[in-house]
Amino acid sequence: MALTLYVDTDRWRAHQRAMLQQFPGIVPVCKGNGYGFGHERLSDEVSQFGSDVLAVGTTYEAARIKDFFSGDLLVLTPFRRGEEPVPLPDRAIRSVSSVDGVAALVGARVVVEVMSSMKRHGVVEEDLGRLRAAIDDVRLEGFAIHLPLDRTDGTDAVDEVIGWMDRLRAARLPLDTMFVSHLGPDEFARLQQQFPQTRFRARIGTRLWLGDHEATEYRGAVLDVTRVTKGDRFGYRQAKSPGDGWLVVVAGGTSHGVGLEAPKALHGMTSRAKGVARAGLATVNRNLSPFVWGGKQRWFAEPPHMQVSILFVPSDAPEPRVGDELTAHLRHTTTQFDRLVER
Question: Can you tell me the distance from the alpha carbon of 283 to that of 292, in angstroms, rounded to the nearest whole number?
Fold first, then answer.
């Protein structure tokens, strides 16, 4: 009995092929937990569709993935002086976000990140003169710009990239390759058309692997079902049952990522009101689980355990049976499944 990730492999790969057509020269990203699929599996997929480079999050990931992928490895986390040295092959390319970082990587292959409206990290315009001198001592693979997902001020993503292209050109820096993130296919095509001498390469992870939501589904198997009546005590904390129904033990607990949730940006009054309501319910130990039964998400009976969750299913719902599977709305980037089944 397991928490299972079901994958419609043909549909999943069809989405990958569509992305390859929309973004020629795509740089697939495999970082974190491999978007729920794992590093080895995604490395194999990238090898199958023939990409020459794979982007990873950290040097530690690059050290692991080098055994699964034979092409170039682009490390997205910028180099910093004093970081722990991690042995990597020459096919590893380091991102750098400062002139000091470039100066410390003599002879290395580097991609220079410029400061975008994300304001996370990157070389600023005032440093371009010093950067021009520093790049003579490295093997420059190109420049990169990491753009925000939302543009609430109405600005245009393409205009932001063009602005940096103009600054780099004015500083007499080479514009052979520009790595970009978070652009749509039309925006990507506009840039390539406007700068035909520059090769634009889109670094894409989430949209490539998780862009077709119908291609994957998590399900947790029912391990035990116990009938309860209102007021019955149960669980580690001996809480009372809120009504008549069943306590359902389902595969999937904290070790799988169940019950873990990243903070979300709330937009609009409706989503904010829902957030307030969820917070209020949590204070009285009412937490909605990601598991669906009878067409509804069911409440946790108590906080999830390490490998299982206990749900309360009321008596007006169909009775679950041992061996049934409950669909689970889980975030791929925080979930560790027990098994993967391809359909």
Answer: 23
3-state secondary structure of 258: coil
**Which residue reads 């092929």 in tokens?**
17
Burial 10-42 (b: 16+ CB within 10 A, else e): eebbebbeebbebbebbbbbbbbebbbbbbebb
Do residues 210 and 299 touch, judged by C-beta distance below 8 A? no
| Phi–psi pair at 202, nearest 5 degrees | -90, 125
d(CA 38, CA 253): 19
The pTM score is 0.90
Query: Are the C-beta atoms of residues 239 and 253 closer than 8 Å to each other?
Result: no
Cβ pair 342, 37 in contact under 8 A:
no
Distance CA 111, CA 74 (A): 8
220: buried, middle or exposed (CB in 10 Å: 19+, 13-18, 0-12)? Answer: buried
H or E element, residue 308: strand 308-314
Q: Tokens at residue 292, please?
A: 């669906």
Q: Give dist(CA 97, CA 41) in Å, integer.
A: 30
Distance CA 181, CA 203 (A): 5
CA angle 137, 26, 68 (to 5 degrees): 80
CA dist., res. 232 & res. 235, Å (int): 10
Q: What share of the chain is helix, strand, coil (3-state, %, to 5)?
A: 30, 30, 40
Residue 298's closest CA among 275, 327, 270, 272?
A: 327
Q: What is the mean pLDDT of each run of 10 residues along the chain (343 residues)?
A: 96 98 98 96 96 98 97 98 95 97 97 96 96 96 96 92 97 97 97 97 98 98 97 93 97 94 56 42 64 97 96 97 97 95 93
Contacts of 31 (CB under 8 A, 6+ apart): 55, 56, 57, 58, 61, 76, 205
DSSP, collapsed to helix, strand or coil, labels residue 160 as helix
